[in-house]
Structures are given as structure tokens and as C-alpha cells.
Amino acid sequence: MDNIFAKLYGDHKGIIKYQRSRYRHIFNKFQELFPESEAEVQFYSTPGRTEIGGNHTDHNHGRVLAAGVDLDSVAAATKSGDSIITVHSRGYEDPFIVDTYDLEIKDGEKRTTNALIRGIAARFKDLDYKIGGFNAYISSDVLGGSGLSSSASIEVLFGTILNHLYNEGKMGAELLAIIGQYAENVYFDKPSGLMDQIACAVGGFVSIDFKDPLKPIVKEIKFDFEDQDYQLLIVNTGGNHADLTDDYASIPIEMMKVANVFDKNVCRELTKSELLKNIGSLREKTGDRAVLRAMHFFDEDNRVILQTKALEKGRFDEFLSLVKESGNSSWKLLQNCFTTHNPEEQGITLGLAITEDYINKIGKGACRIHGGGFAGTIQVFLPDQKVAEYIKVIESVFGVGSVTKLGIRSLGTIRLDMNGSDI
To answer: How many helices (H) and strands (E) in the chain?
Structure first.
């Protein structure tokens, strides 16, 4: 399977050696857990994703730019021969078990993996696709809490298994993403946009326009990141995510509050010129922060268009300049780099300040906040030859292992042939 590993993870000998060992473990663990399984075992892989542009624009029907990464969730799976889905997952002692004959929403099951599995199976059935039981063992390298969408990766992975085991792989990536989002919203009971699932399902660089959130316009962007001699890094600055619900919710609420003044539902229905002409009266009705966040929306939404064009035309320096602009806008206008409830803790702001100082010294690179913000990770683009030095600088502050190197994975969610002959 080395040729497949090279396509998914890069052709470095160390990486391929690691993936051989990883897949061998997954295969052996599956056989240990399901010794009576007679069907041929198949592997399935779904990447995590990184947001590159469009920070907090999707919920107001804006545009985003994202990419699949080379950290993924992998499953070994076969049909079970009955209606029962049994999933064992690395790091969990007990399996997740769902009967596909029982697909009703269960209140006591919300916020669990069982809810996601049941919701995905239910949506398959609602859309007249076939479902049935399967046995699976899953191992994920997508870091939880890193903004790389570990949950969306798993959701799309479950859908991919059902797609290939029972529907001959006929379902497209975007539909699998929509089904994953449905399960998360309705069964798991967590409101979320569709960006994460689409980026995980499609892979590569992808721009998504949510003007009609029920029918997002997805555009794959052909760009070879490896040819740029740059490294994409995610830095975990720490922080507690537990009490940030109100901070996250305040962003779409305040943007929509601005739109409501104009009798609109979301900022996408306005223009920036309308906003600027009415700032005086808006301040009294919505408060200053809401106005600033709406200004961020318009600039960031347009920036995704410019970033997409820059990548399509191979203008990488222009793209990096726009990444910087995105970071500055999130820092100054969107204001999601720290929570006002705990201003003493500003890991993200500190991480950005240290990184910007380093980038200014070497004259190359870009950084921005990554994902929802308030705590967690920042995103950094640096020349390959400067990565080792930067890691020493940043890990002296946030600790060894706080930096993760990422590659852009061109392939989305897939079934792998164990003979290595195809994907």
C-alpha cells in the first residue's frame, strides 16, 4: 500500500514507515475484536481540515476557504451480516453499538458517538439509500480541540463506510458532508455549519460559498502547496474551552443584530457601503463591537475571493499577504483572540505576537488565528528552512509538542484497496 500512503501522507520514508505500522495495528486490532468476521476487511480514510480564510463568516452565509490535511481518521470495516453497527475506537474502552432498525432520536444519547452513528444511518434511510450493520475499528490522528475538525472527520468516515458497503460508493462527497452535518445538528444536538464536513469530505483546497446554506457552492482549487517550499503549522497555545460557549455564540448573534437593523437576517444580505453609511445610528442600536464584527465579515468574505484567485493563479506571496490580513482582522475587528471573561489568559494573542515578531525578523511568512478562537490554536505559514528555529522559539513558551506540522491532502474521504491497486 506504499503508493497509496504516498498520495495520502507524502512520500517521506519515515512517514510511510509510520503509516505501515499504524495500518497494521488497525488491521490486527480489527481481527482481534471481530475474530468471526469472514468478509474481506477494507480500509477507509477521512482527513481532518484546516480553515485558511473566512474566519466566522459561514454562519452569516459568507464564504470560506479550507483544506483537507494529512492527519486523518482511519477505519477497518466489514459488513456485520445483521442490522447492528459495532464500532470500536482507539482510546475508548467500550464499543459504540447502534441497531439500524432503531433510528429514532434518543434524548439520553445526545452528544455521544452513538447519536452520530444513528443520525447518519437515519439520514441515509430518509434519502432512500441502503443501510445495514457493520463492524469497525477506528483510529484517528486528527487532534481533538485543535480546530482540525476531528468530529467532522469521524462523521464523514461513518458515512463513507455505509456508502461503500451498501451503496457501491455512488454517493458524492458533498452529500456525505451534508449527512454528517445533519447527524451533528439533529441527533448529536450541536449547531454547526457545513464547512468542516465539506472540507473533510472533498479534500485539497476548497472554497465554499454559503449564500444559500442549504445548497452551498463548493469549488475545488488546484494548487500544489508542496511546491512552495513552505510548511503549514498549527500551534496549540492552550487555554480552557469549557466556558467559551457564550463567546462563540456572541459572534453570529452580534453580526445578525446588525443585519436586523436593516430588516435583514444575516450580514450577507447587506453591503459594506450600507454599513458604513449608518455606523452613527448603528452604534446606539447594536453597540460598537457588533459594528466592528460586521465590518470584519465584509472584509473577510471578500478576502476569500481574493485568496482563491491568488491560489488559482499561483500567486503564493499574494496569498500569504491575505492570510496576514485575515489574522489582523480577526485580532482587531472580530476580537476572538481572547475572552473578556478571563483577560489574564491570552495564549492566542501571545502566540500571534511572538510569531509576528519572528516573521518580521525573517521577512517571510504569515500567521492568523485558527478556527473559533478565544482559546486554542493559531495557524502559521513559514519557509521550510525556518521551521526548526521557529519551533524552538514557540515551544519555549507553550511547551514541547505544542507545534504540529501539516500537509495539504489532495484526496478527500476514500476507501482504500488493501492490495494497493486503487483508491
So the answer is: 13, 12
CA distances from 136 to 78, 86, 209, 287, 322 (A): 7, 6, 34, 51, 42
Which uninterrupted H or E stretch holds 220? strand 217-221
> In terms of residues, how long is the chain?
423
**Domain co-membership, 199 together with 331:** no
Strand, coil or helix: 345: coil
Angle made by CA atoms 353, 358, 364, in degrees to the nearest 5:
115
Determine the structural domain holding residue 207 and report its residue range: 2-223+409-416
Nearest to 155 by CA among 203, 133, 188: 188
How many domains is the chain partitioned into structurally?
2
**Residues 51, 176 within the same domain:** yes
From first to last of its 423 residues, what are the pLDDT tens digits of the chain?
A: 888 899 899 888 899 999 999 999 999 999 999 998 878 899 999 999 999 999 999 999 999 999 999 999 999 999 999 999 999 999 999 999 999 999 999 999 998 999 999 999 999 999 999 999 999 999 999 877 656 668 899 999 999 999 999 999 999 999 999 999 999 999 998 877 788 999 999 999 999 999 998 889 999 999 999 899 999 999 999 876 667 878 988 999 999 999 999 999 999 999 999 999 999 999 999 999 999 999 999 999 999 999 999 999 999 999 999 999 999 999 999 999 999 988 999 999 999 999 999 999 999 999 999 988 898 999 999 999 999 999 999 999 999 999 999 999 999 999 997 665 455
C-alpha 420: how far from chain center:
27
CA distance 98 to 37: 18
CA–CA distance, 299 with 329 (Å, rounded to integer): 8
Q: What cell was used for 79?
A: 459488513
214 in a structural domain: yes
pTM of the model: 0.91
Distance, in Å, from the CA atom of 33 to the CA atom of 388, rounded to the nearest integer, reads 41
Answer yes or no: do 252 and 365 share one domain. yes
Task: Judge if 206 and 234 occupy the same domain.
Answer: no
